[in-house]
Write a structure and sequence with these properties.
about 550 residues; five-stranded antiparallel beta sheet; 17 strands; 15 helices; alpha+beta; elongated
């Protein structure tokens, strides 16, 4: 390969493209005739020479690029047996580069030492941005399909799906919101790129009340995608969106896309995509987002079917309870009644009833009643292990549980539960009880803590419950737990049922805090959503 003297020899900052490349023993071609980018790098990795294709790929002129750092990490050494510059090379590597004109590119490249001076390196490279983008999209779809086939919860599945979309297309963020079967409740079920503020839905509701236009409602109503260029520019200056400004400003985003989730002909939610500045929405982008929204809809539909199966299971459980009562308790009570009846018959005779007969019959009646009582207690405990919530109220049930658990585990406990929590819906109280007890159980099982504290109160129509410990904490989920830490997804499932959130925070040696925020009434987490009947395309 013949290369003219570099800038240090000529004093020039201009790339000289009048160089040639040897492609065989007897043949050379001008470097500008090579379709791939060719460049010579000095020992520091800075550009010395670039052919015409390289200048086009890097988006600059010779004067702009000569002497600037290239994006190609230099190999520590290139052995004599390295493949030729145009040979097939399985060791092709990929790097990223951002031209001065903007827009990140991905280059596949190969390095080769300059034969005339091994201190310099020749790099052959090509643009694989679109190719790798397609690969990431296909991979995202495959991974999401695999996740749907796994045993993960729907919130974990949708979080993973959102993360795949962000990674595949380099988006700023993604949210997946779903509505219940009744169509009245809307809440975030998955997201990526955002933090998870516990009061997001409260803020969104406030935006709606202030007259802020929620374009996702248009997508829900029309069942058509909505694309809003430069959306953040408009929201940033809209006072109605002030409650969510500090949430949205954490993303570096510009345009907005909302794709409806269609399940069995009905709008069941939306996938909201926040595009980074400079990103445009083309046909391929919409095709990919629509495909991922279809995957999300499948996950939501699966969850709906599971809920229906649970309803069937609950009905079957009630039927089983009726059978159990009939087969055991009812039969025992019936037998006890027959014994009592026999005593009445004996008492009605004129003859004296022997004492041993009375003792035997009364003993049998006592045994039957004790057996029936034991069976009833077992059934109650099996089917309503937290019956104390309904009997004593949520506040007292939580205090009793925390005090008892702490005493058995040798923990100091601090319990601050406002009496106002006793006014919650019965099913909501049950889920709050389950969330708190699960968090406390995890402290006992995993935290190696000395103290646990439990706080619960109602604030502005929302219940906030916190379980904190001073244990060892964690940087990553414990071994065997892929759900995000100590089975947190089980608690999240209970919270998202009501439009609430569960957020764990921890650090190694810094303890763990689990904070749950749920609406105190269904109305607190409900937006006035449009009728799911389509009304034509979005305007």
């Amino acid at each position: 390969m013949a290369v003219p003297p570099g800038p240090s020899d000529t004093g020039s900052r201009r790339a000289d493209t009048g160089w040639s490349v040897s492609v065989s023993r007897d043949t050379t071609v001008p470097a500008d005739d090579v379709p791939d980018g060719l460049a010579v790098l000095d020992p520091r990795g800075h550009f010395v020479r670039l052919n015409r294709a390289a200048l086009a790929l890097c988006g600059g002129t010779g004067a702009d690029l000569t002497g600037t750092p290239g994006p190609f990490p230099l190999a520590d050494e290139c052995g004599a047996g390295s493949p030729g510059l145009f040979d097939d090379d399985t060791a092709e590597q990929v790097t990223t580069y951002t031209p001065a004109t903007g827009g990140q590119r991905e280059f596949a490249y190969r390095l080769h030492p300059l034969s005339d001076d091994p201190r310099y390196t020749v790099v052959a490279f090509r643009d694989v941005t679109d190719e790798r983008h397609r690969q990431r999209r296909v991979t995202a779809l495959a991974r999401t399909a695999a996740k749907l086939a796994s045993q993960g919860t729907v919130s974990a599945t949708l979080d993973a799906l959102a993360a795949e979309v962000v990674q595949a297309d380099g988006l700023a963020g993604v949210q997946i919101l779903t509505r219940g079967e009744s169509g009245g409740r809307l809440h975030v079920m998955g997201s990526a790129g955002f933090r998870h503020p516990t009061d997001f839905f409260r803020r969104l509701t406030r935006v709606h009340e202030l007259g802020g236009t929620l374009q996702m409602l248009t997508a829900l109503r029309t069942r058509e995608p909505v694309v809003i260029p430069r959306r953040w520019e408009a929201l940033r200056d809209d006072p109605a969106w002030a409650p969510l400004h500090d949430y949205l400003v954490e993303l570096d985003w510009d345009s907005f896309v909302s794709i409806p989730l269609i399940t069995r002909g009905q709008s069941t939610g939306v996938l909201n995509a926040y595009l980074a500045p400079g990103q445009t929405v083309n046909a391929r982008t919409m095709e990919f987002l629509t495909a991922m929204a279809e995957q999300a809809a499948i996950a939501v539909d699966y969850t709906t079917l599971v809920e229906r199966e649970r309803d069937v299971a609950r009905r079957e459980e009630r039927q089983q309870l009726a059978r159990d009562l009939h087969d055991s308790v009812v039969q025992q009570v019936f037998s006890a009644g027959m014994h009592v009846k026999s005593m009445e018959v004996l008492a009605g005779r004129d003859d004296t009833v022997p004492a041993d007969t009375i003792a035997r019959v009364s003993g049998e009646v006592g045994e039957l009643t004790r057996s029936a009582l034991a069976d009833l207690r077992a059934m109650v405990h099996q089917r309503r292990p937290s019956a104390s919530v309904a009997e004593a109220g949520l506040a007292e049930a939580l205090r009793a549980f925390v005090d008892g658990t702490a005493a058995r585990a040798g923990l100091r406990c601090e319990v601050r539960i406002a009496p106002t929590v006793d006014g919650l819906d019965a099913e909501l109280s049950e889920d709050v009880y389950r969330i708190v007890t699960e968090a406390v159980h995890n402290v006992v099982k995993h935290a190696d803590a000395a103290t646990v504290s439990v706080d619960a109160d109602l604030r502005d129509g929302w219940l906030e419950a916190t379980v904190a410990d001073d244990g060892r904490g964690y940087d990553t989920p414990p071994e065997g737990d892929s759900s995000g830490g100590y089975g947190i997804e089980t608690m999240r499932e209970r919270a998202t049922r009501w439009g609430g959130t569960v957020t764990p925070t921890s650090g190694r040696g810094a303890g763990t805090t689990v904070r749950a925020v749920l609406p105190s009434t269904p109305a607190a987490s409900t937006l006035e959503l449009p009728d799911p009947t389509p009304e034509g395309p979005a305007r």
